[in-house]
Amino acid sequence: MIITEPVHTSPLTSARQQLAKCIDILGIDPGVHERLAYPDRVVQVNSPVRMDNGSTKMFSGYRVQHNNALGPYKGGLRFHPSVDIDEVTALAMLMSWKCSLVGLPYGGAKGGITVDPRQISVSELERLTRRFTADMILIFDPQKDIPAPDVNTSPREMAWIMDTWSVNKGYAAPGVVTGKPIAIGGSLGRFEATGRGVITMTDELLRFKGRQMVGTTMAIQGFGNVGSTAAMLGHQQGAKIVAVSDVFGGIYNPAGIDIPAAMLYSKANGSLAGFPDAETISNEDLLLLKVDVLVPAALEAVITDQNADRIKADFVVEGANGPITPAADAILEKKGIIVVPDILANAGGVVVSYFEWVQGMSQLFWSEEEVNDRLRRIMTRSFSQVANLVTTRDLSFRMAAYSIGVGRIAEALKVRGLYP
Ligand code: GLU
Question: pLDDT over 90 for what percent of the chain?
């Protein structure tokens, strides 16, 4: 038997390939292509942290600001061992396209710390987050660059960042991060926003294809904020969630998993492993299930040219950023599998981040219904703009979404001109 090692496709190479393809379609000026292929600013800090045992350890952290033609830089911070400049740059590019596509007055950024938060204590994590924030004090700013949660970060970390930045500046600055706890100016609905958007986009796609949510079978990889919320809302709306997984592996029940019970189980046990009434399934095999909708909602590059030809779902909705490599995208397209791209599918998070920022600046807070309603309107409007291009220009959903997102930034760069 030949064992093929998965080929590691660099996330930045993938992001640049997708950009080049879109530039070709739009016939954009090579100078604009050049500007969009590189980030505006790359910042690395090495933050010293006093560990619980008295020793000192350095942690590398990054912030990449890709482009701010449309407004302040915006994007999450992830805490993960695979975080490096290449990955963060690729994710910052995606944030630029995403904010532009859904019509937010933001540019794109991303950041992170190379750390496995499970391997350090909560107090070490707090000291690390606070020192990282202090080291980035000139970078983060409510008018310049606004971080938010991403992989392994949550309202707790955002509160530490808001507090550290505010203490150092001498005034309370809730606008410096989004995804904060409600008690310090977070928005109702922000926590669920990304998963909610994923399900809204799934619903729109099913309708576009003359199908419906009720009875649709779904497999969801990842049970963090995005995956678990998508599973819960999909379940509530009548979809049959047959498989879900977390970092430790997955669970599968062709008759449908009781998602509320799985949420409680995962909370109580720290993982889905051992959940009753389901078989065990690996993260790799979950992707290959014959389901109507597959939602990769964990990390990037999980569907590659090594497994794309074995994907059996009718539709893939990208909850994660960059889960499908360009080579895999081409294979899925040939197989007739429709992919709702990350920059549309998971844009709900940054949309409600924007609402949080606006509510904070105006000191006027909205009800959860109002937040959810405005979110739904932005998401469905964006879907129909993309679907319209899919139909009229015969583009994939990814290239249609890119054309809108990249096209608006290109236009902004053109009218702003090049200084000096
Ligand atoms: N990390 C999320 C994303 O990738 C949210 C970013 C934000 O809210 O700024 O879209």
Answer: 98
- Which atom in ligand 1 lies closest to the alpha carbon of residue 179? 8
**For residue 143, with 0-12 CB atoms within 10 Å meaning exposed, 13-18 middle and 19 or more buried, which class applies?**
exposed
pLDDT at 3 over 60: no
In the numeric block, which tokens belong to residue 112? Answer: 């992170």
Domains, the chain: 39-171 (3.40.50.10860), 193-345 (3.40.50.720)
In angstroms, the CA 367 to CA 375 distance is 12
Query: DSSP secondary structure string, 110-152?
Result: EEEES--GGGS-HHHHHHHHHHHHHHTTTT-BTTTEEEEE-TT
Strands (E), 190-346: 217-221, 240-246, 249-252, 279-281, 293-296, 315-317, 338-340
User: CA Rg, the chain, in Å?
Assistant: 21
SS3 assignment, position 95: helix
Nearest-CA residue for ligand 1 atom 7 is 350
Count of H helices and E strands in the chain?
14, 12
Question: The pTM is what?
Answer: 0.97
Q: Which ligand 1 atom is the nearest neighbour of the CA of 74?
A: 9
Taking the centre of ligand 1 as the mean of its atom positions, its distance from the CA of residue 32, in whole angstroms, is: 25
Catalytic residues: 110
What one-character-per-residue DSSP string does 321-373 give?
SS-B-HHHHHHHHHTT-EEE-HHHHTTHHHHHHHHHHHHHHHT-PPPHHHHHH
Q: How many CA atoms lie within 13 A of 83 on its CB side?
A: 26
- For strands 56-67 and 41-50, give the pairing: antiparallel
Which structure tokens are listed for 52? 């619980």
Q: How far is CA 29 from CA 22, 34, 92, 162, 334, in A?
A: 12, 9, 22, 40, 29
- For residues 1 and 80, the model is more confident at 80
Separation CA 293–CA 337 (nearest Å): 10
